[in-house]
């Protein structure tokens, strides 16, 4: 084990809180055990270790992230994501397979949604020529988290959104029965509606989407088009 990871594991373990661990695990549907360390404290504990040991050289960052990912408690994966932010300027297109590995390992919305818009989104914005090598493959996979990644990588693009690509991706996945796919479709449309509400409104009205996706998509713009809670069921039918 890398010395930095060992020190972090010991520091976190010394501050575990079993009373908080149970409800934290329950919130995540008991997919992972928890130490019971909430986000502000976890980040402070990580800061403590960085001050004592310093952040390792960037050549070790994948080793550190993988070792943290292998530890059972979810706080270690959360810490790994915090650490990745500190190495962000070093993460580039050569790391896509590594990020893909993280997405499909110990998968849940908290880790996937931290990886995809921030890291993959930046990479694909700088290297759009790589999109065709990954996005169709992820869509065609049986892995809902890769499919969610395909939907969400443009989440923060705003005016740089590739509308044609976005709507093609949604068109490939709109019939999915998976909650996390339907929710992601609604989320990316809702976010893009902040930039281009008319386009999103027109798309929702004229394309087949799950009711959940439609509700999420127009959540913040429905009033612009005279839709209230009484009318929303008719609009979404």
From TrEMBL:
Gene3D superfamilies (alphabetical): 1.25.10.90
Domain of life: Bacteria
Protein name per Swiss-Prot or TrEMBL: DNA alkylation repair protein
Provenance organism: Bacillus thuringiensis subsp. tolworthi
Source lineage: Bacteria, Bacillati, Bacillota, Bacilli, Bacillales
